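Two proteins were folded this term; both appear here.
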Amino acid sequence: MLLEKKPAMMFCSFDIYKADNSPVKERRRSVNKPGHNGIVHELSSPDGINLGYYNVTSTVPGKVIIENTNPFIQLTYTISGNKSYEVNNGKQRLSSFKKKEYNYLFLTKEHVHLNWQPGERLEIFELGISPELMLDYLPQEHPFYALLHKSIERNEPTPMSKSNLFLQTESNNILYKMINCPLDGRYKQLYIKSKVGELLSIELDAFEQSFTTSRGRDEKPGALRSVDVERMHHARDIIASNLQSPCSLIDLAHQVGTNDAYLKRHFKEVFGTTVFGYLHLIKMNQAKELLESGVSITVVTNLIGYKHVSHFNRAFKKHFGIGPGKIRK
């Protein structure tokens, strides 16, 4: 009889409010537990901001039980892998995420279960923001504002969007720049807060557009039909499957049954980025994975389609805020 391996549970306590007044508290550590290996990088500031970067490879199911000591809003991003959140002592699925998805979650003072599956690399960002700071950023007419107030009043854990949104290239870049910020002290605190504002300005606009589109799809002239959305998902799959020899916009449009003008417009409406922006995002993430596995910069440059190492170095540093040589080290 084969016994199923149970998830290796880990426990941690989390408080969105820092206990001291130091500008930024930062911690980096390695994960070296049975079945799990990787890195963790966390930082927090007295502004009510906490950013965590987790890059873990697991051979067994993973579970972290987080004890929240105060309610907060979690901006949760999945770069690679799959994860899910459970509340009510693990009895209720709150939300689940696939590769390149994000959402905002209102989390209450309770235990939250984070789960992930073995056999894949889990790379995620978790950006916690205090309710007070979030409400300062939100205009009252934004659909998120009323939903957040309702969740706070009822003290209910809630995903702010019924369906996850696609992680945009701009957001991806900001997250990596925050975690790789070279500044210290008060300047780092100022940098992190400014980047949170930049991130929210991009994503709250995307959230509002998605909310408006989903509510008015039936009556709004020119709204995307379900068949058009399916075509864009098909186009995305073709792009991801042909990184070494990407096809032209016209060829891609023909493969999914549309024309290049519709492809460009509809793709951005569905995914929040252009076809070439998405291709660049996939290439940069693939380059990062290869570098982390020990592949040389020269080989990576050729594999992802750059002719010159210097061009690749500049593109990589612009995307992640850190040079490829430091990633490889």
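Next, the second protein.
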Amino acid sequence: MITTESISAIRKQVLAWRMKGETVAFVPTMGNLHLGHLTLVKEAKSRADHVVASIFVNPMQFGQHEDLDAYPRTLNDDKNALIEAGAELLFTPTPGIIYPKGMDAQTFVEVPLISDQLCGESRPGHFRGVATIVCKLFNIVQPDIAVFGQKDFQQLLVIKTMVEDLSMPIEIIGVETIREDSGLAMSSRNGYLSAAQKQQAAALKQTLDKMAIELCAGKQTDEVISAANIAISAAGFDNDYLDIRNAKTFNKAQGSDTELVILAAAYMGATRLIDNLVVKLK
């Protein structure tokens, strides 16, 4: 695997592949890789001739009081895992390479409406940071396909909307959330949890599962959300948000909707966890 922080080196290698008529898939990450990330790389490998990955802890998507400095960085382990999963090219830029004029002078990309809700409301500017870095990375790598996890459903929808609105010739693939044995969605932030907190945190997915059963049984969304909020709090979480949306439009769920997504964010101690579950109604 070639590892470089050079934009020109990335473009040169991708161009060499393209000159042979070969396709390129891209998996952007912030590192500290786990099985969820590696599943994305393997999915990318199954869909294209070559896989490019990136590791960049993006300061633009972190809020003023969030864990940018504490975010785990495990580059050597990540490299070995990416090689085993089938990546051939790894882009590891510094903030100075990505934002040479500083973030205050950086042109940004913003997806309206979707970016202002739920995680966007709790973390102002977060999705501006996500859209901007993903747009920059897409322009650097110029992939045919890009692969993302569905664990952050709202982020995936922001990226899909950006690609559609800006007419980018990139196919966006969403991959189902990879979970620990307890049902807890795999996340780099799970490393902040104690063993006891990890077991406790499994209640989040259990609550979403119960909500899905109740929705399929015809219960009203407001009633389902109210009961679930109580259950999440009783499990030791500090609730951030819990909502049910149309999985296609991200609008508030209506009685005529047939595909819904339950979205949740809650704190276990100081660690903010997110999860979601798509529910298809008959």
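The chain is about 40% helix and 20% strand. The two ends are 47 Å apart (CA to CA). These notes refer to the second protein only.
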